[in-house]
Design goal:
With about 450 residues, this protein is an alpha/beta fold. Helices cover about 50% and strands about 15% of the residues. It binds NADPH dihydro-nicotinamide-adenine-dinucleotide phosphate (NDP).
Length: about 450
Amino acid sequence: MLVTVSKSVVAKSDIDSLVNAFMESVISQSTGQTEFHQAVHEVAKSVMPIIQANPIYREAKVLERLVIPDSVIMFRVVWVDDSNEVRINNGYRVRMSGLIGPYKGGLRFHPLVNLGVLKFLAFEQVLKNSLTTLPMGGAKGGADFNTKGRSDGEIMRFCQAFMNELFHYIGPDIDVPAGDIGVGEREIGYLYGQYRKLSGCFHGSITGKSTNWGGSQLRPEATGYGSVYFANDMLATRGESLEGKIATVSGSGNVAQYTVEKLNALGAKAITLSDSNGTIVDNDGINYEKLAWVKQLKNIHRGRISEYANQFKGSTYLPGKRPWDVPCDLAFPSATQNEVEEEDAKQLVKNGCYCVSEGANMPSTPEAVDVFLNARILYGPGKAANAGGVAVSGLEMNQNAGCMRRSRDDVDNQLRCIMHSIHENCVKFGRNGDSFVDYVRGANIAGFVKVADAMIQQGIV
Ligand code: NDP
């Protein structure tokens, strides 16, 4: 379907005008959804030259169609807290595109969740899922619910109330949600329990399940491990490896924990973790023993990362700070969107950081991305670098459909292969004519072309 990617038939200034006109139309249809506009703008800049060089994409209006969700489900979630007060939250599922497989993407429970945030995440998910090579469409959902400070009973009742509505819309061939911020193993358990009760089926309609009842080996590890594999592949393009490198990591949840674990395994030293209150710095390295303590703190006791500095001598806690002032070779933003701003990026580059692999979704602002690209460092955007999580979710769907079970080694090998092929695809579409690889452009074009071709092949629907 795709005719050419190498030759732009339109001058750069004309491309900029086309992107601006396109964005005006997107913004007028989605007022106030700033994160969504940010995500679409980045992709539009990468793919507009391809669209102009391939009239079939232009005539079919592929980009215009891709930025409007197939459907959006919005619902009320009513539950009762421990003091018997009735609580009300907003629940959502944004089904962005089902062109290349059942809708697939996580659920986020966080007070800042709104339609714009979920549309940005769902849009990124479409291209990310396309990059994995697996047959998965893109979606995202969640609620403006804060899990912090809630008892297990409250979390269970909230999850059950949320599923009471969502279960109408999901199924193994329809839409398969998973976890994201605020939705970990505990929440997936409660969500699936209610789904099973309501549907009367043991379908693989959610991924991230416990390995005791259908979950894939290595799913909790997959996003963090995959982001480190991606960094390793980027470093290999310069004849380097992770061995002996110093790394900063943000966040202290699922993705951050397994990023640190894999960095240790491959000979690098992770020296920071953070949460929304501040950052800990441990120049001796967050080794396996310390990481095991962090997992207990965050996953069982639901504590704050500041407690690390009381537990481990020689480490320090920086209240209200992000990790990006701390000198490092490699950075792994693994907390949330827009957590690396322009000044943070400048500081990272100034301090010698030359490889950034994003575990989080869109953690760098557009200005920060420009700093990385202008400095010509190795910069792996989230939609490529963190695709390992959804890739292993895809393997979990496949495992559930076949009533089979894969070994840990098998899943790890597949994860490595998928991350490697994503990296290859980014290099293929992201080379600038010299040795520099623009992984943003590469990921956007590689993800886009497959979905755009599917759209044309499936007709005007
Ligand atoms: P978790 O809920 O397990 O952890 C999130 C971490 O990020 C916590 O340490 C949290 O701190 C921190 N955080 C959240 N919001 C903010 C904020 N506004 N400012 C600073 N820190 C914040 O989530 P995950 O680890 O699963 O997800 C992290 C990122 O990775 C997200 O962007 C997610 O979309 C992305 N991702 C996750 C995948 C997965 O498989 N889980 C797959 C692909 C991407 P606090 O406790 O203070 O809120």
